[in-house]
């Protein structure tokens, strides 16, 4: 740290101590050096956690009905640059104390926006120098950078898909700058979300939808072209979210985003991928594991914003992950892939407005890291035992292993298909879908009896 001051003086480095007294601030399940059963990787390698600047050290926990409640002493500063630097220090202190290796930020989370673009860039350079120093001093790394294209009033009517070419140019040049910074800080990826890229009053977009979607593609291709030009070797990762702040965002879920990217010629680009978020899947009415599966099916899963929504609340509540069961199918997939080799699990998660103890942020992150760790271990058990594969591969999908399956998949004529239909139908014997049995199997692994 550059200054000696501690922003979380009441908390030390968090140990892994499964036997610690209840209520101790420790990891009970996350042990970065523990090798996960059935793999050659450690928990630390399989779960490349990250903290995010905006929720971690910038969000005072205000809501639409009330102001912030969270004590954030680092925000008390004589000038905005000092405030930005203190935010950086608090962020790095969190990473160091929690043993989290990565962070993510939007341009104006840490650097104050200036009165001109030039001044904003100057502020960004100052903060980037400081971040580079902190990275060098601590060994911490940048997961991804991105641009805040939703706070400033100029973005209220969209950016890439917006109503104004001046805004388009302004937003794109901010991306160019932030991409350079991300490269300088050796960030792994660059995120494009798009909270203001979406439908407003339907009457105002009906004639323009095809036009703005073309702009969406042009914007993304410019970002990718520039990434190629400067030799950024990370991915440009798009983050689907159905709604909030817009009524409907164009990138509403994985399938819609894949379609838009394909239409724009972006899906075909090697440096384009996806960043998925649990809460966003829920807003689209979809299971997170389904979204992960869909992104994997297109070979575009790069990174994950690890958080959790609440089905009783209709918006993006960004809770720290705490439900193990939701993550078991996700970890079954990630174990197949050897984790997220080019991405991270960034905690795009925030404290509840009710939570005001400076230790609460530690409880949130520790809880989330343990939740992902438990899910990883349960999924590893399920995999190594092989019963799920027996049910799904050896029973449910078994018929695709027969010669008819092979013949269909290698291409059959209409006549051959019709002959097969005559031969095998109309009554066809099928295996059980085994839904209940699979539910029991998951519970057995989560809570082994005896
Ligand atoms: C908001 C998004 C946002 C992105 C980064 O809902 O999750 O935080 O991750 O702009
Ligand atoms: Ni996110
Ligand atoms: Ni979110």
Poorly predicted regions are none
Instruction: Give the overall pLDDT as a whole number.
Output: 97
Oligomeric form? single chain
* CATH class descriptor of the largest domain: Alpha Beta
Helical region count?
Answer: 16
Structural class: alpha/beta
Distance between the termini: 48 Å
User: How is the main sheet built?
Assistant: 8 strands, parallel, barrel
Count of distinct strands: 10
What's the architecture of the largest domain, going by CATH?
A: Alpha-Beta Barrel
The helix-strand sequence is HEHHEHHEHEEHEEHEHHEHEHHHHH
User: Looking at CATH, which topology of the largest domain would you report?
Assistant: TIM Barrel
Please, what is the CATH homologous superfamily of the largest domain?
Answer: Divalent-metal-dependent TIM barrel enzymes
| Computed Rg | 24 Å
Walkthrough of the structure:
This protein is of the alpha/beta class and 450 residues long. It has 2 domains: 43-385, Divalent-metal-dependent TIM barrel enzymes (TIM Barrel, Alpha-Beta Barrel), CATH 3.20.20.150; 388-446, no CATH class. It contains 16 helices and 10 strands. It has helices at residues 43-46, 53-58, 80-98, 107-110, 117-138, 165-184, 209-230, 254-263, 278-283, 288-297, 324-337, 360-385, 387-396, 403-410, 414-424, 435-446; strands at residues 49-52, 102-106, 141-146, 189-192, 198-199, 235-238, 248-249, 272-277, 301-305, 345-347. The strands form 2 sheets. An 8-stranded parallel β-barrel has the order 1-2-3-4-6-8-9-10, surrounded by 5 helices. A two-stranded antiparallel sheet has the order 5-7. Strand 3 (141-146), helix 6 (165-184) and strand 4 (189-192) form a beta-alpha-beta unit. Helix 3 packs parallel to helix 5 (117-138), helix 5 (117-138) runs parallel beside helix 6 (165-184) and helix 11 crosses helix 12 (360-385). The protein starts with 42 loop residues before the first helix and ends with a helix. The model has no long low-confidence stretch (mean pLDDT 97). One nickel (II) ion (NI) binds next to loops. One nickel (II) ion is lined by residues 239, 277, 305, 348.
